[in-house]
């Protein structure tokens, strides 16, 4: 009888495995094998494209001493941190507004309008902001109308001092609706009894925000910060479309830097080594996310 039970359990086990096996094979073909190829390529010198030569850790040493790499890393961190922090602040602000007891139809319309940037393709967003930030765009017309004549002819994306700021603003506009939606969902789970008790004790808006709202949203905020950090750290499309990493490498981030190394200079070994560094950083951040998820399940 015991042997029969074991046989039945094994049959059920292999039946379950058979359902996920095609997906596992596809995952290996699309992820594991290309990753293996990238790791392998990072140890080769592709000066002679038809006959790459094994170079050991040379590619890794090269990007460590390359000032362009450190410039791209600095821009990536600025781009990521500012986008995450400002996106969180703006998302929380709008989530708090939408959580107020206002007309339900007005709230639904307002929420739909605020979701528009997140639903819009990156190409369209890039085109909108390129038109707004060009010397004859909407931003300069507004500045000219306000009397800032020196700034009214500024090529915001063509100036190395302002280009990164312009790309970051576009990225924040694209990303904040997702944070807003997640935070709004979290706000709607907070018991009103907590706020009523705080109001009886004389607590104002900011006191309730600091001591009730934010602590109650802590897990959601931590998850959003980790996910948004990963997504923004590996961002490519918006920066590539708006500036291509220029002018003068002022908006060059790691993803565009790797693209330039691989497909412009055709230095595949160097690009592979740099991309593995980027992967390593994202894996570390992902571990924090996994640890946070496990700890929340245990609570």
From TrEMBL:
Keyword field: Cell membrane, Membrane, Transmembrane, Transmembrane helix, Transport
Bilayer topology reads: Multi-pass membrane protein
A GO cellular component entry from the record: plasma membrane
UniProt subcellular location: Cell membrane
Q: Name one Pfam family in it.
A: BPD_transp_1
Q: Which InterPro entries match?
A: MetI-like, MetI-like_sf
Residue spans crossing the bilayer: 20-44, 77-98, 110-133, 163-185, 220-242, 268-290
Which family does the entry's similarity section mention? Answer: Belongs to the binding-protein-dependent transport system permease family.
Specify the protein name. ABC transmembrane type-1 domain-containing protein
The scientific name of the source species is Peribacillus loiseleuriae
């Amino acid at each position: 009888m015991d042997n029969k039970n074991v046989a039945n359990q094994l049959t059920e086990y292999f039946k379950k495995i058979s359902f996920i096996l095609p997906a596992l094979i596809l995952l290996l073909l699309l992820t594991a094998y290309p990753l293996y190829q990238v790791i392998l390529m990072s140890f080769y010198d592709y000066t002679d494209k038809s006959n790459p030569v094994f170079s050991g850790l040379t590619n890794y040493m090269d990007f460590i001493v390359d000032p362009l790499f450190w410039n791209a890393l600095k821009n990536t961190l600025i781009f990521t941190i500012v986008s995450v922090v400002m996106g969180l602040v703006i998302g929380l602000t709008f989530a708090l507004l939408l959580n107020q007891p206002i007309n339900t139809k007005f709230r639904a319309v307002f929420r739909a309008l605020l979701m528009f940037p997140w639903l819009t393709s990156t190409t369209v967003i890039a085109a909108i902001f390129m038109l707004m930030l060009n010397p004859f765009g909407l931003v300069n017309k507004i500045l000219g109308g306000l009397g800032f004549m020196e700034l009214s002819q500024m090529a915001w994306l063509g100036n190395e001092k302002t280009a990164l700021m312009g790309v970051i603003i576009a990225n924040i506009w694209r990303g904040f609706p997702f944070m807003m939606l997640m935070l709004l969902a979290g706000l709607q789970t907070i018991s009103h009894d907590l706020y009523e008790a705080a109001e009886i004790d004389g607590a104002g808006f900011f006191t309730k925000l600091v001591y009730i709202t934010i602590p109650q949203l802590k897990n959601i905020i931590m998850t959003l910060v980790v996910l948004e950090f990963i997504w923004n750290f590996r961002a490519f499309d918006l920066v590539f479309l708006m500036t291509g990493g220029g002018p003068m490498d002022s908006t060059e981030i790691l993803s565009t830097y790797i693209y330039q190394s691989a497909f412009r200079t055709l230095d595949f070994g160097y690009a592979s080594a740099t991309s593995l560094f980027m992967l390593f950083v994202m894996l570390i951040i992902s571990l924090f996310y996994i640890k946070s998820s496990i700890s929340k399940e245990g609570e």
